[in-house]
């Protein structure tokens, strides 16, 4: 080792590969959140009403809480993925996967603690989560289909 720095490689002068252009307005990635949030809050109201009518106030809060867990979870994922895609598209996969691992781990812990407890609202919480997932997924699929076919 003579202490001489190596000569720079000739590859440094190569042009960058052609990348697809970013959309002019990145808000399209989150424009569905307003509608999905409105539908989710309507579902919160329905879940709380059904829970109250079937089992009382504890079930009403639990069912509404289950829907809220799903709403917050899916909104967080959408925002993280949209942000990553805007900043650097290569971040979408790692940040998206990290978000899913964290949120499903937390959901698993919440549900494991809930199932092992004697809390009377655990069944309503689980049904609220299921209802939230089904409705959010269906509405998001409808939104994407509507936007895709509308072009």
TrEMBL record:
Ordered alphabetically, the record's keywords are:
Membrane, Transmembrane, Transmembrane helix
- Mark the transmembrane ranges: 33-54, 60-84, 91-113, 125-145
Q: This chain belongs to which protein, by name? A: ATP synthase protein I
């Amino acid at each position: 080792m003579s202490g001489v720095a190596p000569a720079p490689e000739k590859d440094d002068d190569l042009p960058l590969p052609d990348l697809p252009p970013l959309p002019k307005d990145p808000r399209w990635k989150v424009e569905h959140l307003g509608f999905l949030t409105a539908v989710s809050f309507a579902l919160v109201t329905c879940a709380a009403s059904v829970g109250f009518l079937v089992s009382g106030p504890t079930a009403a809060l639990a069912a509404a809480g289950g829907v809220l867990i799903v709403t917050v979870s899916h909104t967080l994922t959408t925002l993280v993925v949209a942000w990553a895609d805007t900043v650097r598209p290569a971040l979408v996969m790692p940040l998206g996967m990290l978000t899913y691992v964290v949120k499903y781990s937390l959901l698993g812990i919440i549900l494991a603690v809930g199932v092992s407890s004697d809390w009377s609202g655990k069944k309503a919480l689980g049904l609220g989560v299921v209802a939230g997932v089904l409705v959010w997924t269906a509405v998001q699929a409808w939104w994407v289909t509507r936007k895709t076919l509308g072009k």
